Structure to design on (336 residues):
């Protein structure tokens, strides 16, 4: 049960972190009352990945992130780490994270998260299609010794 | 319960931490003077001043030791959320927090090395009261003499004898803060 909640929360936090700040602001112009536990602050994090064939961690590079933590009037706590240095984006994402743990979750999912997910998927598809158009199929000549 | 450990940090970190740092700097530069700090609400039993000192001085690169009654889950969670300082044993700590009795024996803390005297610990000592009555202090930053109610004198005199090595001390009580750097000479009483 806890794992299910964590996985779902990971999903929407990831979506909010990567969403375009302007789009999120357009979808959710007004924020309900909340208190800042950690006011928005930007910094850099090292992005690591398993790039090599051996699977060892590799420092891919640093990226700018902004983090924020809020508490809603009902006591629910929301956290956000978003890419870029847009402080209102981090704050908005933290509020959405908090609201997603309350009864407002279903409405918010329909009005904000599903739209963001659809747009992200569409952007990914377009990019994949552009990349696919440049694909080159190589073929290997039959070599003498195989014949 | 979770909310308590998440609240109480600086609401306006750039301004408040700069003011707090200035107060701590003044206290350290003029040993024995008492300064007032505000803006942190750490969980009990930490005083406001101890919370301010932690928020201002500690981060992920400064190992912290919690001694005695302050080593409890609320304080550990609060430190983790607001500063990210790793909690370590006394021998490895860059900062140590607790009452003087809990910090003893103080010779287990780092005093630096002859070529790197800055690799030493700073003790944040929680006090029941903080007044300018007590052993006389003389030395750098003090015009003639100041007085401060130190918890003991022998430990600080032994620390002064190690100069330029030794630990530095910050005293906190409520929202007031004072300091005793290793360079200050403490009167024998």
């Amino acid at each position: 049960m806890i794992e299910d909640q964590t996985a779902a929360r990971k999903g929407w936090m990831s979506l909010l972190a990567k969403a375009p700040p302007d789009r999120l602001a357009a979808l959710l112009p007004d924020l309900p009352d909340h208190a800042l536990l950690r006011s928005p602050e930007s910094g850099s994090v090292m992005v690591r990945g398993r790039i090599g064939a051996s699977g060892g961690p590799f420092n891919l590079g640093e990226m700018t992130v902004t983090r924020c933590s809020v508490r809603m009037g009902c006591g629910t706590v929301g956290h956000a780490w978003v890419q870029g240095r847009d402080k209102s984006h981090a704050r908005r994402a933290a509020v959405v994270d908090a609201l997603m743990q309350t009864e407002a979750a279903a409405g918010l999912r329909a009005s904000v998260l599903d739209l963001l997910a659809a747009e992200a998927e569409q952007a990914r598809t377009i990019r994949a299609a552009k990349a696919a158009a440049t694909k080159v199929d190589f073929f290997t000549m039959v070599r003498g010794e195989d014949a | 319960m979770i909310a308590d450990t998440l609240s109480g940090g600086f609401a306006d970190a750039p301004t408040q931490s700069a003011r707090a740092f200035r107060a701590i700097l003044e206290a350290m530069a003029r040993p024995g003077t008492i300064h007032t700090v505000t803006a942190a609400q750490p969980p009990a039993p930490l005083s406001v001043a101890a919370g301010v000192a932690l928020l201002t001085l500690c981060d992920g690169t400064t190992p912290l030791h919690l001694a005695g009654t302050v080593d409890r889950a609320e304080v550990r969670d609060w430190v983790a959320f607001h500063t990210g300082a790793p909690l370590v044993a006394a021998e490895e700590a860059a900062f140590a927090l607790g009452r003087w009795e809990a910090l003893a024996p103080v010779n287990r803390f780092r005093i630096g090395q002859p070529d790197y005297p800055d690799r030493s610990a700073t003790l944040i000592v929680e006090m029941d009261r903080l007044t300018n009555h007590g052993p006389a202090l003389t030395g750098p930053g003090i015009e003639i003499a100041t007085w401060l109610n130190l918890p003991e004198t022998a430990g600080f005199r032994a620390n002064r004898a190690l100069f330029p090595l030794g630990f530095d001390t910050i005293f906190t009580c409520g929202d007031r803060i004072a300091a005793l750097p290793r360079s200050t000479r403490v009167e024998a009483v």
Chain B has a mean pLDDT of 92.
